[in-house]
Amino acid sequence: MAVAELNPCFAPKSLLHPSSSLSPRPCFPTHLRQPNAFGRISYTSYPSISCSIATSKVKALTVERQKEEVNNEEDCYGIFCLTYDLKAEEETKTWKKLINVAVSGAAGTISNHLLFKLASGEVFGPDQPIALKLLGSERSFQALEGVAMELEDSLFPLLREVSIGIDPYDVFQRVEWAVLIGAKPRGPGMERADLLDINGKIFAQQGKALNVVASPNVKVIVVGNPCNTNALICLKNAPSIPAKNFHALTRLDENRAKCQLALKAGVFYDKVSNMTIWGNHSTTQVPDFLNARIDGFPVKDVIKDHKWLQEEFTEKVQKRGGALIQKWGRSSAASTAVSIVDAIRSLTTPTPEGDWFSSAVYTNGNPYGIAEDIVFSMPCRSKGNGDYELVKDVIIDDYLRQRIIKSEAELLAEKRCVAHLIGEGSSVCELPGDTTLPGEK
Ligand SMILES: NC(=O)C1=CN([C@@H]2O[C@H](COP(=O)(O)OP(=O)(O)OC[C@H]3O[C@@H](n4cnc5c(N)ncnc54)[C@H](OP(=O)(O)O)[C@@H]3O)[C@@H](O)[C@H]2O)C=CC1
Ligand SMILES: O=C([O-])CC(=O)C(=O)O
């Protein structure tokens, strides 16, 4: 690996040519991390193993900031301060074009599992080089550096760039995928309405940023709770991105439901297919045992205990997050990361014949009679091109319909709570009393 040029970031002054105008700089200079005149700080590094111009910048940013603003001050991070000429090596590879993937809440627990899966090739494939754009906050900045260091030390061949920052207008530039995980957890005594407002503001800002700086066809997976309504807020604030490109994660619920059905039927979980989660990622979600199949047969033909299906199974899936918190003392992180991988792969690989997957997507002409203009989990199929179609041939009986209506009512109430964040006037927040996230008691 030839070092074509010594970057002043790391170089002791004695190593620089006497005539060099370059001078050594500390990496991540602490003085640059102070809030600027606008009370905000921004720091981005663009490390790259392949061509390695590592940059960072600190500048005042406004919400109206436009695409043409690009990074031009340089800084660097660790190994990425070196400049390599890998052209010859690159020519022997049959890799696809680099993709840019943003992850928010990047210093959080779910991300700590997800990022290493993304970098390994497990998600986008072994021939897909990737640039990771990590969004954190002022309080997590040091932790973000730690994440970047661990990514460096992992020597992933496909990981070509890692950048970290706290301004979504920086971090989301040109991203083709955005996984939005960062969100404030509900604390003691906090109303769900407060959570909707606090987290809603985060997703409104991130939607605006995506709208301006992301790739126009960016696919967005919202994980931070309450994820359905956060996804709605995000897409409403990003009118130039197709609403269809936004997903709220209900894949973890699908996986949980498959596991419970397999357990009851005494089969391995790969035998369970056609599993729909309808509605909200909350305890009103509806795991659909009517249309699901075990080894190709309707679940009700395999599991004869229909009382169990209606009562225990449904509640178990709805409250699985809470049960896990009781055991672990924290919410599902590893299995959530796995389900994010599943969700992305379901969009980037063709859905197996006859099967489908669940994702909470924007209701716009849905065939099930569900209210339009919300983000609702439904059965989807994909050709593997990043897009999806809703599955039409599902049966909805009275049992399912009643429960779907309850989840729909909850989402419509959540939507009224965030009217001020989606351009629909002032909000009126009256939530049904039992609305909880899966992890809440
Ligand atoms: N949809 C689903 O299936 C699931 C969703 N979740 C949700 O995912 C989210 C993240 O979970 P997890 O990674 O375990 O949580 P962590 O608390 O480990 O990390 C979350 C990150 O969110 C950011 N954050 C916290 N408070 C705020 C705030 N006020 N403003 C902005 N960002 C904030 C923090 O980043 P920073 O310090 O950089 O701001 C933190 O690193 C939660 O909302 C959780 O409820 C969890 C499991 C399943
Ligand atoms: O409520 C939470 O934070 C955790 C969660 O969504 C889940 O486990 O499904």
UniProtKB/TrEMBL annotation:
Lactate/malate dehydrogenase N-terminal domain: residues covered: 100-247
Spans traversing the lipid bilayer: none
Keyword flag Transit peptide: yes
EC number(s) given by UniProt: 1.1.1.82
GO cellular component terms, A-Z: chloroplast
GO BP terms: malate metabolic process
Domain of life: Eukaryota
CDD domains documented for this protein: MDH_chloroplast-like (cd01338)
Domain Lactate/malate dehydrogenase C-terminal: 250-420
A Gene Ontology molecular function term of the record: L-malate dehydrogenase (NADP+) activity
Broadest EC class assigned to this enzyme: oxidoreductase
Pfam families in UniProt: Ldh_1_C (PF02866), Ldh_1_N (PF00056)
PROSITE patterns: MDH
UniProt subcellular location: Plastid, Chloroplast
Sorted UniProt keywords: Chloroplast, Disulfide bond, NADP, Oxidoreductase, Plastid, Transit peptide
Family: Belongs to the LDH/MDH superfamily. MDH type 2 family.
PANTHER family: MALATE DEHYDROGENASE
Known partners and oligomeric status: Homodimer.
Protein's recorded name: Malate dehydrogenase [NADP], chloroplastic
Organism: Acacia crassicarpa (northern wattle)
Lineage, opening ranks: Eukaryota, Viridiplantae, Streptophyta, Embryophyta, Tracheophyta
